[in-house]
Design goal:
The complex is a heterodimer of chains A (about 200) and B (about 375).
Chain A (H helix, E strand, L loop, with lengths): L7 H9 L5 E5 L5 H10 L2 E6 L2 H9 L4 E3 L2 H4 L8 E7 L8 H11 E9 L4 H10 L23 H10 L2 E9 L9 H4 L2 E8 L1 H5 L1
Helix pairs in contact in A: 1-2
Chain B lengths: L14 E5 L6 E2 L5 E2 L2 E8 L9 E5 L25 E2 L4 E2 L4 E5 L31 H14 L7 E5 L1 H13 L5 E5 L7 H15 L16 H15 L2 H7 L18 H16 L2 H13 L17 E7 L7 H13 L4 E6 L7 H4 L1 H17 L2 H4 L4
Parallel strand pairs in B: 5-8, 5-9, 6-7, 9-10, 10-11, 11-12
Antiparallel strand pairs in B: 1-4, 2-3, 4-8
Helix pairs in contact in B: 1-2, 3-4, 3-7, 4-6
Classes of the chains: A alpha/beta (about 200), B alpha/beta (about 375).
Chain lengths: ~200, ~375
């Protein structure tokens, strides 16, 4: 059964992307998001994925994917090869986050980052009242089996962008099945940011 | 998934195409010319009216035109029968598959064992040294003769993969897609070294007689050892352990130099069989062609050019003869040129032989890749994913 088109984060990303854009999805998984972008936006898409079974799923959908890890997959692309580089639910699994985002902004014009919010209310309660590492709908893993190596909140990511002189062009916050507008760092399970380089400054 | 029932092709026949008749000989990369040239080839399936469904399959070092189906009276099918046929990866219900032998070979195509029209005797070492580009140039003449302007795909493993890459470099505008498997942009020093040991084994056999052995018989010992070396490089440490371990043929050591271990018996058997089916000089010429092959450094796709060809690059984890890093070199070239491409390193313990043996996963990738190439994205809707 096809499951794409139902995920809120995929719908939001699809709304962000202009028709016909060149898109690279780093950690594209089974290709649901890329397939949606092809169908709804006529995007020219390429995926990078580390799991060979997921690559088969992508090829079944007609998608083109490179087998490789996220960190080595980008460097071979010439500058500005893509309109968008997507890091949806994959950035938190990468050690060299700063380098990866800079690389993504070299290979692409804008980067779309989607990540789970570590400061979500339930996570705060688990840590504060129970004294346990948070397990939430967006952070479903136990400490000993999580693929995540970076734990950040929405506020952390805004700080990060400010510190690196990145422009936040758009931001979206997601509850279970709807968008959140009030106190996102408390009520948002996931966040999606669209960031770009501060080109005016970097030219000086 | 809608997978047609797999069937066999039944009885097939090799056909022959002759061209480059003097004075229109084929100009080779060495600047020597060769003609007339005969290519042995087979076809499976039907060419559609628009001639848009033709796929060329290229073979490896010791392969031939007989890729699938059975020859009359034979019990073993062609070398890629598991992949070519109705309902298989290269589905002959949908595609017209052409399998061509290479020039320089000894399976019905012009090579060093063919008669030199100028002398009436076998060419031997008078046969010009050929390259992968020459093989592909000859194949292009075959494809022309079939009236096919654009191939849906060209596919092959190992040296077959080199031919695929050469097609991209020489005639990229005539390909809608390319499937190079377990191959490389160039031979590494290690690969050249193995080939040189292979050649020395043949040329060091006194029966080789500077290549003029045709009235006397093959340099059997040298050719057999050459093939034994080859077979070691086609397997992996793990696949040899699983297949032979240290098993003994007779259950005990003989304390002589006979074949005590099963692996020894296997290699001897393979070597002896090979002598009966392959020409020693062809082995020299073809290994040389592989060693000369080099499309690195931007020669695969011209700079400033975005290829219209789609790519499916496949490598295998345990292949140490054509390691995955060589396929990743191909991928690097493709990324730099913004090619539409898929790369997958498949898990396998078979070593280089995997491209002949890992049928299921290759089938999934190739079937869907070809579907997309022919029909675009809408085809994916037809599959239950």
């Amino acid at each position: 059964m096809r499951s794409n088109g139902n995920r809120l984060d995929h719908q939001i990303i699809s709304q962000i992307i202009e028709p016909g854009s060149r898109v690279l999805d780093l950690g594209c998984g089974n290709g649901d998001l890329l397939y949606l972008l092809v169908k709804e936006k006529g995007a020219r898409v390429q995926g990078i994925e580390a799991n060979d079974v997921a690559i088969s799923d992508c090829v079944k959908k007609g998608l083109s994917v490179y087998h490789g890890d996220l960190e080595s997959g980008l460097t071979e692309y010439p500058d500005q090869s893509f309109d968008y580089v997507i890091l949806n639910q994959s950035m938190q699994e990468v050690k060299r986050v700063d380098w990866l985002i800079q690389e993504a902004l070299r290979a692409g014009n804008r980067v779309i980052v989607g990540f789970p919010n570590f400061a979500y209310l339930q996570a705060r309660i688990m840590l504060f009242l129970k004294g346990k590492a948070p397990i939430t709908r967006s952070l479903p893993y136990r400490w000993d089996n999580t693929p995540n190596v970076r734990f950040l909140s929405i506020a952390d990511f805004r700080d990060f962008c400010r510190g690196k002189d990145l422009i936040i062009q758009q931001e979206y916050f997601l509850g279970g099945n709807r968008q959140i507008h009030l106190w996102p760092n408390l009520f948002g399970l996931n966040a999606i940011f669209v960031v770009s380089k501060n080109r005016r400054k970097s030219k000086e | 998934m809608q997978m047609d029932t797999k069937q066999n092709l039944g009885i097939v026949e090799t056909r022959y195409f002759t061209f480059a008749n003097p004075p229109n000989e084929l100009l080779l990369e060495s600047e020597r010319s060769l003609g007339p040239i005969t290519l042995a080839y087979e076809t499976y399936g039907k060419l559609n009216r628009g001639k848009t469904n033709a796929i060329l399959v290229a073979h490896a070092l010791s392969g031939d035109a007989h890729a699938a189906g059975f020859h009359e009276g034979e019990k073993t099918p062609g070398w890629w029968d598991s992949m070519i046929g109705p309902g298989k990866a290269f589905d002959t219900n949908r595609y017209f598959v052409i399998s061509s032998n290479v020039v320089g070979g000894c399976k019905g195509s012009t090579g060093p064992s063919s008669l030199n029209p100028k002398t009436g005797k076998p060419y031997g070492l008078d046969f010009p040294v050929i390259t992968i580009a020459d093989m592909v140039k000859a194949q292009r003449h075959l494809v022309d003769s079939l009236g096919i302007e654009k191939l849906l795909s060209v596919a092959g493993g190992s040296m077959g993969g080199m031919q695929v890459l050469q097609w991209v470099a020489s005639y990229g505008e005539r390909l809608r897609s390319a499937i190079p498997i377990a191959t490389a942009l160039k031979h590494s020093p290690q690969q050249i070294a193995f080939d040189e040991v292979v050649r020395q084994s043949i040329m060091g056999d006194p029966a080789w007689r500077q290549g003029n052995y045709y009235e006397f018989g093959q340099p059997e010992k040298g050719l057999a050892v050459a093939r034994m070396i080859g077979h070691i490089t086609f397997m992996s440490d793990q696949s040899m352990e699983e297949k032979f371990s240290r098993k003994l043929k007779n259950g005990h050591y003989s304390f002589q130099f006979g074949a005590d271990f099963e692996v020894e018996g296997y290699l001897r058997h393979r070597g002896d069989n090979f002598v009966r089916r392959f020409d020693a000089n062809s082995y020299l010429y073809i290994t040389k062609a592989m060693d000369y092959f080099d499309l690195s450094g931007g020669r695969l796709i011209p700079n400033g050019h975005t290829p219209q060809t789609r790519f499916l690059v496949i490598s295998f984890k345990s292949d140490w003869l054509y390691p995955s890093y060589q396929s990743q070199d191909i991928v690097r070239e493709l990324k730099g040129k913004h090619a539409d491409a898929t790369y997958c390193e498949l898990p396998s313990t078979y070593g280089h032989d995997a491209f002949l043996l890992e049928v299921e996963e290759q089938t999934t990738l190739i079937r869907h890749f070809l579907d997309k190439t022919l029909n675009g994205y809408q085809v994916a809707d037809g599959y239950e994913i």
